[in-house]
Specification:
alpha+beta, 4 strands, 180 residues, 4-stranded antiparallel beta sheet, single chain
Length: 180
């Protein structure tokens, strides 16, 4: 008498293998999505560093006068709401121009407080952004008579998702002469 597998046993083995293979295949899409998100996170962090570093260096410059910190300023004026289209409630098509304005306004404010002698790159780092296809937003906030300037940045490949992306945040503290 020869021993062999019955048709039921073969079908059960195929069913179990098919379930395992389907589980593995479903993990590929999850891995692809996580890989894409990881690439976007790394690119966003690199761009945040390129945009925020000159601002931190300018705000922490030792030749700044305290007089600039006596004023309250916020760039852009309405914070993150400045990135929304008032008609549609969606993110504007060109958030980089708003971010670039916040960048240049902050640096010009700091440059005037340092008598124009800031040793900081004053051009918006658009070359760091242009090759990535990322959209970015920047907000700089300072409260009157506070030694701290708050800087927040967001970046994404999907412009409509800008305001739902994680925030890269830092604070820069006044290091200049408080008697000026």
């Amino acid at each position: 008498m020869k021993r062999a597998f019955t048709l039921i046993e073969v079908n059960l083995a195929i069913l179990i293998m098919a379930g395992g293979i389907l589980a593995m295949v479903s993990l590929y899409s999850f891995g692809y999505r996580e890989n894409s998100q990881s690439r976007e996170d790394v690119a966003g962090a690199a761009i945040a560093d390129a945009v925020m570093s000159p601002l931190v260096m300018a705000c922490c410059s030792t030749n700044l006068k305290w007089s600039v910190f006596r004023n309250e300023f916020s760039y852009p004026g309405k914070g993150w709401a400045s990135y929304m289209d008032t008609n549609t409630g969606l993110v504007t098509r060109d958030p980089e121009s708003t971010a670039e304005g916040a960048f240049s306004d902050t640096l010009s404010q700091m440059s005037s407080a340092a008598d124009g002698s800031l040793d900081v790159k004053t051009d918006f780092p658009s070359e760091a952004i242009s090759g990535t296809g990322m959209r970015c937003g920047l907000v700089v906030i300072h409260k009157k008579d506070s030694p701290v300037v708050k800087i927040a940045f967001r970046a994404t490949h999907k412009p409509g998702m800008l305001l739902s992306m994680p925030i890269y945040y830092t604070e820069a503290r006044f290091q200049g002469d408080p008697n000026q």
